[in-house]
Amino acid sequence: MTARPTVLLCDDSRALRMLAAQQLEDSGYQVVGEAGNGLEAVGQYQALKPDLVLLDLVMPECDGRQALARILAADPQARVVILSSLGAQSDIEECLRLGARSYLQKPIDPEAMDRVLRDALA
Amino acid sequence: MAVKFLGQFLLERGVITPQQLLAAIEAQRASNPLLGELAVRQGLLTEAQARRINERQRVEDRRFGDIALEMGLLEPAQVDALLAAQKAGRKLFGQVLVEQGVVDPQRLETELAAHRADQDAANHALAVGVADHALAEFANGAIALCGRLFPRMLEGQCQAAGLASPEDLAALPHAAHVRIEGEQPLFIGMACDRDTMRALACAFLRIGPERCDDALALDGLGEIVNVLMGYVVRNVLPDDVQYRAFPPDLGTPAVQLAADRDRSLALAMNSQPGPFVLLVGH
After folding, report:
1. Contact, B276 vs B143, CB < 8 A?
2. For B65-116, what is each residue's pLDDT tens digit?
3. B162-199 pLDDT, tens per residue?
4. Pair B272, B158: CB distance under 8 Å
């Protein structure tokens, strides 16, 4: 584990990625890659093998649930935290059953994010 | 006729200039500290603690004092004392204008009466326009949500100004909406001009305008609507309702979204970042 945990940030919104990246850096994480849809997320994960993945649930071209399944199929040890503002409770529950470590509600509260990510890393 | 902030009302009537408006807003902001600012000034909280509570407010849509109590950072008596101090020191906008010598007290009273009459008429027109609509409850909920969230998320006030006309919508080139499909299909959207779009996005992202191009601003608008819809879904829909959510749509014009007036409502909103139209529908 590196001194600063590495994070792959996956959200179709550049604005959200900008905001989250700043919050992550401020909290001591290193954003090593970004993805704008689920397909990019899967590809980036395989290329970067980050410590953590922050994965938006609602994205075009392969949503978060599908991307989660593919990432975990390739690496069952992947630590993925779901991001959601619109996700139905059933979708979140399904992602947790699939193997996501936790989920964060948008807009992201930095303190909650840090707590959730540290738990996911443990 | 529309509901307007007092400052906007006075500006449009030629009672104050834009410079006087800005000066009064700044003076009012300085004399009306947020609860967190007051707690820091009194040494009850550190700045970091106040920031933590503010961040949770953005997410949880709850009062500062309630969160501080839950986090064990303030005692109930301290919260009560802070609220009392905040209320005692609060200055109304008109009061600031008088103190700054911009208007005399008698003129202020006349203008306040006119503003109140204007507000009452506009609120009545809005209520009548919405009341019989199938989306009335949803619309009123969305308006109230904006009123609560804007100060916390975008550091500015927001209030409904009236119903927006098709002409109003045609003049707003930038629109973002989010829809959900399923048992209770809904959409919620915001439409605005370029200046408001950029101001909203910069407030949401907490960046200066020099870092925000139009594409990022529109994206930011989409994320604001995304957040609004998230709250609507959690507050309005039953937990077990089945629905499918879609990413923000940044390309559908507001006129098109509000074309079917039986299935949509377009609400003119005033906010400190700028005026916009809140669109709700199914």
Report:
1. no
2. 999 999 999 999 999 999 999 988 889 999 999 999 999 999 999 999 999 9
3. 899 889 999 999 999 999 998 889 999 999 999 999 99
4. yes
pLDDT band at residue B253 under the 50/70/90 scheme: very high
Q: Between A31 and B151, whose confidence is greater? A: A31
Q: In what order do the strands lie in the sheet with A52-56?
A: A30-35, A6-10, A52-56, A80-84, A102-105
Assess A87–B contact: CB distance below 8 Å, yes or no.
yes
Mapped onto helix, strand or coil, the DSSP state of residue B184 is coil
Domains of chain A: 6-107 (3.40.50.2300)
Which domain does B167 fall in, by range?
135-281
Residue B125 lies in a domain: no
Q: How many domains does chain B have?
A: 1
Residues of B within 8 A of A60 (CB-CB) are 247
Which residue among A13, A106, A111 sits closest to B52, beta carbon to beta carbon? A111
CATH code of B162's domain: 3.40.1550.10
C-alpha neighbours within 13 Å on the C-beta side of residue B189: 34
A59 touches chain B (CB under 8 A): yes
CB contacts, 8 Å: A88 with chain B: 233, 241-245
Q: Are A98 and A69 in contact (CB under 8 A)?
A: yes
Q: Of A16, A55, A86, A105, which to mutate for an interface test with B (greatest number of B Cβ within 10 Å)? A: A86
Contacts of B253 (CB under 8 A, 6+ apart): B169, B173, B175
Q: How far apart are CA B63 and CA B148, in angstroms?
A: 10
| Chain B residues bordering chain A (beta-carbon distance below 8 Å) | 52, 55-56, 58-60, 153, 178, 180, 201, 204-207, 215-216, 219-220, 222-223, 226-227, 229-230, 233, 239-248
Give domain status of residue B87, yes or no. no
The answer to whether position B98 is within a domain reads no
* Whole-number Å distance between alpha carbons of A109 and B12: 39
Q: Is B258 contained in some domain?
A: yes
Say what the pLDDT of residue B1 is.
56
CB contact, 8 Å: A89 with chain B?
yes
- pLDDT tens for residues A10-69? 999 999 999 999 999 999 999 999 999 999 999 999 999 999 999 998 888 888 889 999
